Amino acid sequence: MKYILLVGDGMGDTPVPSLADTTPLEVARKPAIDALARRSRPLLVQTVPEGYPPGSDVANLSLLGYAPERYYTGRAPLEAASMGVEIEPGAVAFRCNLVTVERTGDGRIIMLDYSAGHISSDEGRILIEAIQAECGTDHLRFHPGISYRHLLLRQGEVDGLVTVPPHDYLDQDVTEFYNRYATVPDLQQVMEQAAAILSDHPVNRERARRGQLVANGIWLWGEGRSPDMEPLREKYGVSGSLISAVDLLKGLGVCSGLRVLEVEGATGYLDTNYQGKAQAALAALEEDDFVLVHVEAPDEAGHQGKVEDKVQAIEDFDKKIVAPIVQTMEERGEDFRVVITMDHYTPLARRTHEDWPVPMIIYDSRGVSNPLSRPYTEENVKRAVAERGEQPVSGPRFFQAFIDPGQEAD
């Protein structure tokens, strides 16, 4: 039996006025997913436990079968694991975004873009290396990542500091959150120094010349220490691979003992190398029991409030990931199970994550009793689960039922 977990990050939504009060999932052309749905078991999965932030870190940890209540220590440590950056004893890892902010005349700070216009990895690396060269010490060390997503390691406790993800506050006043860094003087100082370094950097001058957003600040968040996770093989008896463009997901792969497969051209947005991801997954399944393919584009579109981009991201997920993987597995003639899901909702109206139970379908090539028999949408799955008298299940309970078909996820 082969187990395939396909995650369209943030696909879920609420009715959108410009889509005649339907959701992107309802209007997107997704023949491969809908064909599966009619032969799949519907499920609602509570990926984010009560009291936890509804981020991709918590939600995907849960989807992989690890209870966040036991294993979650923060987002940045997972990204550090992906980057091969060791968090030394006593150190705390921070996610470090390159951002675009507006500093108003009355001293306020407005978050214009959490990604500095989805700055390229090459440009981001140059800027972070410039900050490290000027600000890095044995106490503070910057590590370049992908696009706008980077890392800061700091020695010592940060008790009392509460950070927020910048993508939750687009076009909003973040002065209050920025001022919190003043409670940790060296962090306040390095953020101010970084802004000064970025203000006249050649990379930003060239971006401005091209009419692009400039990376004029850094934003620290997602802090935490290294998690202690047993490998998926020991926990659930499956071995496998993970494919994603995002360091966070790659870090989950490293910490759970999965092979992390690098796909050239995987960007985390609409221009990602979908074909390369699908081919890598199919190649992995020739020897692995399990593969997780994560697509970030629907979430990015949700954060930016771009309706057409989100619909396109879902259609691309269907056509370029789901369809070729399912078709090839059917041609191979092996027994397989495939899950189509999101990790969390990212409603266009909110432009941030929600912790609602996510709609999921589980397809088994050997057949499923009492299948959904309807297209895959938020409302269809909710209605089907309610009609069966079922309740949302936790991520670990879902995963156990997924890899052990003899178990029920209720």
Automatic annotation (TrEMBL):
Keywords of this entry: Glycolysis, Isomerase
One Gene Ontology biological process: glycolytic process
Catalytic activity of the protein: (2R)-2-phosphoglycerate = (2R)-3-phosphoglycerate
Pfam families in the record: Metalloenzyme (PF01676), PhosphMutase (PF10143)
Residue stretches making up the Metalloenzyme domain: 1-366
Entries under InterPro entries matching the protein: Alkaline_phosphatase_core_sf, ApgAM_prokaryotes, Metalloenzyme, Pglycerate_mutase_ApgM, Pglycerate_mutase_ApgM_sf
Pathway(s) of this molecule: Carbohydrate degradation
GO molecular function: metal ion binding; phosphoglycerate mutase activity
NCBIfam families membership: apgM, hyp_Hser_kinase, PRK04200.1
Functional description taken from the UniProt entry: Catalyzes the interconversion of 2-phosphoglycerate and 3-phosphoglycerate.
Family: Belongs to the BPG-independent phosphoglycerate mutase family. A-PGAM subfamily.
Record's protein name: 2,3-bisphosphoglycerate-independent phosphoglycerate mutase
Species per Swiss-Prot/TrEMBL record: Desulfolithobacter dissulfuricans
